[in-house]
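Milestone M4 deliverable, item 7.
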Amino acid sequence: MQWIRRLYDWVLHWAETPYASWALFWLAFAESSFFPVPPDVLLIALSISIPKKAFRYAAICSVGSVIGGIFGYFLGYAFFDLLGKPILSWYGYGAQEKYQLIQQLYQKYDFWAVSIAGFTPIPYKVFTIAAGVFQINFGMFCFASLLSRSARFFLVAALLWKFGPPIRYFIEKYFNLLTIIFVLLVILGFIILKYYI
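Output delivered:
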């Protein structure tokens, strides 16, 4: 796994260059369709180095990610056999049973499948490509992507803007757990709204 660490360090080095904003945009774009390192890594580094620009960086990250998600949708829709399927296989989702599981999620919960994948550590790229393969409603896909990706990146930016460098270690260490707790709270909220209000 040394190559992942080298890739992680390579992503972080962009925070110290004049091209940091563009690097963040392209990283967010690539991660939504094929790249393994999440843009949060660079977003955190940039937001800590210049806290007053944290929300600007979150906006750049959100736009890049949504456009990248649209690209992923296009890969699944038009180039699944050539590009989409190898990407899914590389991430361990090429097996028929996993592929069918994603299909079932889309058939039942299309909006929520995109939203949860967009916000949590679940590989978003798998869901963007699958959305194109299963041809889910494109407008709904874009809306769910914009909502979930913006929520994720603006939450990180808000925490860094408010608490500064001390929160970085906490976010990096517990990011997966924090996002899962948030999603469970959202689901609980909808259950309460549906059945008790």
